[in-house]
Amino acid sequence: MILTVTPNPSLDRTYELPGLTRGTVLRATADRVDPGGKGVNVSRAVAAAGHRTVAVAPMGGPEGALLTRLLGDLGIEAAGVPIGGNTRINVTLVEPDGTLTKVNAAGPELSPAEAEDVLEAVRVRSAAADWIACCGSLPRGLPPRWYAALVERSHRAGARIALDTSGAALTAALAEEPDVIKPNAQELAEAVGRPLVTVGDALKAAEELRERGARSVLASLGADGQLLVEASGAYFATAPVAAVRSNVGAGDASLAGFLAAGGRGPEALASAVAHGAAAVQLAGSLMPTPADLDLPSVVTTSDVPVDRALSEPAP
User: Which segments constitute the Carbohydrate kinase PfkB domain (predicted)?
Assistant: First the structure.
């Protein structure tokens, strides 16, 4: 069972448009609403793969009630923590060429008592978890060390922790030795304070984060592939993508694939890449099912192409 923690969940509304022109009335060709937030998306991907998952998240107002119902419809146990504010709504506009315009709301502010209630909900449900995936930005009211506290408490309880966040929240948690961190290229560059131009730059950055406490690093390099750096070595994997329809939630699908495949080694990396490649070819933030995956197309190697330039260098 994979337990997910999403401190700032959302309802994700996606509109597909024939084009995006400012200052005009736009008519969507399709629209959908999905449960959102990075940890929630991990739970959705785990459930789509046929595994049990529990989603812990603060939920409030009619938006929180709808989020709980949508998760239930997907077979996900929603361990909602009641809060006084309303769950946020995010909007994604998708153009025919795959260009995305996202508007993410700030979300509610959590009180110290509500923040502690979320930690307690994780403690109560963590005993049955093979992994705890802690994902996304922190809402207003939670200090940068909130994730560090969660990792420390979970390790004391004997749980394995995967952390997907960025900025001060990520750097503060490194000292507590999360079992896996999952930065993208930009987050990796931010964490080490220098630009990443090549795959070799990303490898050195991942190794530095391991030296600072992370036990392993699963780094998404966008269209260039994914990099796994752990105690057993470094691995690199890529997969072909026919056409990108939406990259919303693709990184979360990758993390779900990685954890569902054991959370270590080249086989788990291949599963992560297959899940991510499948997700970007689906509408909105739909999560891939086993029928969507193309594991044979994933190329995994321990010979990391350090001289390969990143197609989108990270500042």
Answer: 14-289
Candidates 97, 164, 252, 292; catalytic one: 252
Strand residue runs (E) in 248-294: none
User: 13 to each of 66, 76, 94, 166, 225, how far by Cα in Å?
Assistant: 13, 19, 11, 24, 28
Tell me what pLDDT residue 67 has.
Answer: 97
How far apart are alpha carbons 236 and 304 in whole angstroms? 6
Mean pLDDT confidence for 221-237: 97
Q: Could you give the CA distance from residue 181 to residue 247 in angstroms, rounded to a whole number?
A: 20
Judge whether 252 counts as a catalytic residue: yes
Cβ atoms of residues 139 and 37 within 8 Å: no
**Residues forming beta bridges with residue 181, ordered by sequence position:** 163, 217
pLDDT at 298 over 90: yes
Q: What's the pTM?
A: 0.93
